[in-house]
Amino acid sequence: MTDVRGAVGAVWKQESARIVAALTRLVHDVGLAEELAQDALVAALEQWPGSGVPENPGAWLMAVARRRAVDTIRRARNLENKQGQLAHEARERQRRDTAPGSAAYQGAEGAPGTPDDGEPGGPDDVLRLMFLSCHPVLSTAARAALTLRLVAGLSAAEIARAFLVTETVVARRIADAKRTLAEARIPFELPPGAELTERLSSVLEVVYLIFNEGYTATGGDDLLRPGLTLEALRLGRLLAGLAPAEPEVHGLVALMEIQESRAGARTGPCGEPVPLHEQNRGRWDPLLIRRGFVSMLRARDTARTAGGPPGPYILQAAIAVTHAQAPTAAATDWAGIAGLYESLVRLLPTPVVRLNRAVAVGHAHGPEAGLALVDGLAADPALRDYHLLPGVRGDLLARLGRYDEARPEFERAAALTGNSAERAFLLRRVDAAALASVHTAPPDGATGAVSGLAAAAEAFLAHGGLDPASVRSYAQTLTRLRRTLGDRFPLAGLTPETVARAFDGAWSTAAPATWNRHRSAFRSFAAWVPLDPAVAEGPPRRSGAPSAVRPIAPAALGTLWDRTDLPLRERTLWRLLYESGAPVTAVLALDVADLEPKDRRARTARSGRHRISWRSGAARLLAELVGDRTGGPVFLTGRRAGPARDAAAVDPATGRARLSYERAEYLFKRTGARLDPDGGDWTLKRLGRSGRADPAP
Predict the structure, then answer these.
(1) What angle do CA 483, 485, 491 make, to 5 degrees?
(2) DSSP state letters, 117-160
């Protein structure tokens, strides 16, 4: 039953746009068309569990939906006594759709049918549906909701979760949008030539809005919402196939592909933002980058054929391409990017574009030049509550060593953002500016020697005396210290008290082993510089046996198990840890090949012996999570693995990497804080201990 419902859902996402578009052409009412399509979906849910999934499930749904549309048209025409021409069209459609061998005729008999090439629901109809959903008569929020509903096939609940609003709000937006389209008598047709460019711009705006909300969420706890970016990419690729001669469509697809390629490097293990210049470029997805380059070439070729200048999406894609071509952050062609932004400002002189130009100019020609442009935007009312304006200004001031001025800018940016991860990042920059303001290193070259923390850290990591594992480990410690103290914090300003405050800010809640690992890394760095012996000693070492692990209260766990709306991966991991009581590392290290589902047990990678066993709750969830996979890690991230990742930690079918302990712990702690605000110190170890304390299934 679960497999059938999954098949129905998958088919619906792929075919819903074509079905709704075909029905809209038949009944001339997008609201009624969606209701008829939903009727066909209900019919599939009722019939397929008994009869099996048809060989061509999309055609089956189309046939049933069209048959219902024909019945609806008949009833309406009989009741309302339509005009003669309309009645003639109805008879012709009835004759064609109910003829033996036709799709509708077979659908009426419950058998799958295949529409002819010229039937409704072809590419032109889907394109018409996209233009209708994104019509300028609708508000921006309504356009986004209606497009995700009709074209992407998302439910109201899925859209609500993506935009962090209630399902009622989404349902109201969709209903209001349908009513507005009906009252305005918006025709189901492609706009005429003179209007096409303007209307296409509206469609692209909606697709990019959906992408951006997933790429940098405006609210909530997480910086990214991968579901939205993937839906936007799907819509963009669909649109590129429907309108292959439109350069801006290919430009938008190229832009989204390349931006999405960075998803695996844009956040740390705990969901914190990682700035572009600090990202590990080895984690950028090379497949998405290549796809972006191909789309960019298509955009360039079609623009040349059309004979016009490059549009705004092509220019933004060119900027993304420039970033992707740079092997390191230092090798980025900022002068070229600044030039592209100059062209973009002439074409699209919005305040946000001008702010982005200021960032590029600040990198290409120095922070003073960028700051002058930012200050020119300070009075713009459109940016009054835009958190990136003070954020950018604070960054430029910090690069100039004006930390006392940068600090209030970061504070204001943190107050304006609605995203928790971004706010935490900005507040860390507030603390870093406060610490750095005590001692400010002179600009590079001013004293004949580089004395800033960033320069010393990079020199230490590159000096050649470290193995790759040590470089990775030490880089984690030094990167966090650089974020806390500031890149230009002078080595001469490091005191035992400063180092202690930095460690407390970064790792105050860490386990003794984690604290001591970072302490050891700092001591190695300090000995290499070398720093004053009192500073090089580092913070005091933490010792002592681990404290007793308290189980989580049964009532709180009951609330957790009732939350079936949480992601399947997380629910499976948590239930498996609870029922097995196995070490977290052992469970996360499980591969699909290790599982023996019939015996509800698995052998661990370390010993090869059967050491992990579970009960019915975990067994049911594991079967659903693994599905028909035959290899790779059991628990996967939502991202493709970088090229440097060990092949054993990558799913061969999808290229996705094994879920890390840090990410799994962060997700569980975040859920615990929401479900149990008075005792939100949930950890995966506590969850496993809870299962051992409560052996009941």
Answers:
(1) 125
(2) TTSTTSHHHHHHHHHHHT-TTS-HHHHHHHHHHHTS---HHHHH
Assign 3-class secondary structure to 225-284.
CHHHHHHHHHHHHHHHHHCCCCHHHHHHHHHHHHHHHCHHHCECCCCCECCHHHCCHHHC
Long-range contacts of 476-480 (CB under 8 A, 24+ apart): 476/518, 476/521, 477/517, 477/518, 477/521, 477/522, 477/525, 478/521, 478/522, 478/525, 479/278, 480/506, 480/507, 480/518
CA distances to 62, 377, 504 from 386, rounded to whole Å, are 46, 11, 31
d(CA 282, CA 328): 10
* Dihedral of alpha carbons 173, 174, 177, 178, sign: negative
| CB of 203 closer than 8 Å to CB of 132 | no
Instruction: Examine residue 275 and say whether the peptide bond preceding it is cis (omega within 30 degrees of 0).
Output: no
Q: What's the token pair of residue 446?
A: 């001013």
pLDDT above 80 for 340 = yes
Helix (H/G/I), strand (E/B), else coil: 419: strand
187: left (phi over 0), alpha (psi -120 to 50) or beta: beta
Q: Tens of pLDDT along 415-448?
A: 888 878 888 888 888 877 777 766 554 444 433 3
Measured CA to CA, the distance from residue 63 to residue 51 in angstroms comes to 16
Distance, CA of 1 to CA of 620 (rounded, Å): 13
Contacts of 670 (CB under 8 A, 6+ apart): 221, 271
- Identify which of 332, 307, 311 has the alpha carbon closest to the alpha carbon of residue 322: 332
Taking the C-alpha atoms of residue 132 and residue 149, their distance in angstroms, rounded to an integer, is 13
CA nearest 634: which of 656, 615, 617?
A: 656
| Distance, CA of 647 to CA of 662 (rounded, Å) | 20
CA distance 601 to 589: 14
Write down the pLDDT at residue 4: 65
Please give the Cα distance from 216 to 504 (Å, whole number). 29
Q: How confident is the model at residue 651 (pLDDT cuts 50, 70, 90)?
A: confident
- By C-alpha distance, which of 164, 136, 163, 137 is closest to 148? 163
| Type of residue found at 683 | T
* pTM for the model: 0.61
Contacts of 307 (CB under 8 A, 6+ apart): none
47-99 confidence digits (pLDDT tens): 887 778 888 888 888 888 888 877 777 776 665 554 455 445 545 554 544 44
* Contact yes or no for 674/692 (Cβ under 8 A): no
Running DSSP on this structure, what letter comes out for residue 591? B
DSSP character for 348? -
Distance CA 633, CA 431 (A): 39
Could you give the 3-state DSSP secondary structure of residue 350? coil
Contacts of 128 (CB under 8 A, 6+ apart): 21, 24, 25, 188, 189, 190
Specify burial of residue 24 (Cβ count, 10 A radius: 0-12, 13-18, 19+): buried
